[in-house]
Amino acid sequence: METKVNERNPPAAPLGPAVRQKTIDVLCESFARDEMDVEEFEKRVELVERADSMEQLRAILADLPSASLPAESVAVARRPDLSPESVSGHSVAVGILGGGGRAGAWVAARNNWAVSVLGGCKIDLREAQLGPGVTEVRVMGILGRVEVLVPPDVRVECSGIGILGGFRHHGALDSVQDPNAPVIRVSGLAILGGVSVRVRHPGESARDARIRRKAERKAKKLLEKRRRGET
């Protein structure tokens, strides 16, 4: 009888660091929206660290207006491995007196060119499939703007020159440090124009990204202060 009960109600798997971090991320966003004060935020973070079931995590978030409850598994899905034969050598996107670019679920080439002349060009790699090794993105903005969007589960290497313009890489606190993660290498030139490389989650708007970054900064300071007080 004991065995049958255990088979019907197997013990819940222990909560991993990914699901706890996801819950803390949700709390950070709610805190940034002023849905709780500092004391309440710190209290809920402590409850997350002590929780031992998904039900407890959901209860911590249940009364927050903007919070979405974590799923059973929040681990980032590993990108599908593509064979070298399935990845083309070159891809070109051009915006001249208009717009151009690539977005959605597309297969990025090993070498991707993005050119903007008196227009705009966007290369969105958040849902793109990447080939093995390094994915090169070479950009040129002349009196125009080039925007490169990358997801947080890749490593970004960025180098460029801005002449009477800007060439900027906007990193993120949650960018991966895994040396085995896919690499996106962005390089190029901006002349009287702008090139920006930004980290955003898939489906995240510019406004959502600003709210998330604000939450990350505020929560990071609070958590560091709290941890220093515990030591």
As a whole number of angstroms, the C-alpha radius of gyration is 21 Å
* Number of spatially distinct domains: 2
Helix content: 25-40%
The number of E-state strands comes to 10
Query: Approximately how much beta-strand content do the residues carry?
Result: 25-35%
Number of helices: 5
Strands side by side in the biggest sheet: 1-3-5-9-7
What is the mean pLDDT?
80
What pattern of helices and strands is seen along the backbone? HHHHEEEEEEEEEEH
So what's the overall shape?
A: elongated
Structural class: alpha/beta
The low-confidence runs, each spanning 5 or more residues with pLDDT under 50, are 1-7, 70-78
How would you explain this protein's 3D organization?
With about 230 residues, the protein is of the alpha/beta class. It has 2 domains: about 1-75 and about 205-230, no CATH class; about 85-200, no CATH class. The chain has 5 helices and 10 strands. It has helices at about 1-10, 15-30, 40-50, 55-60, 205-230, and strands spanning about 90-95, 100, 110-115, 120-125, 135-140, 145-150, 155-165, 165-170, 185-190, 195-200. The strands form 2 sheets. The chain has a 5-stranded parallel beta sheet with strand order 1-3-5-9-7, with no helix packed on it. It has a 5-stranded parallel beta sheet with strand order 2-4-6-10-8, with no helix packed on it. Residues about 1-5 and about 70-80 have low confidence and may be disordered.
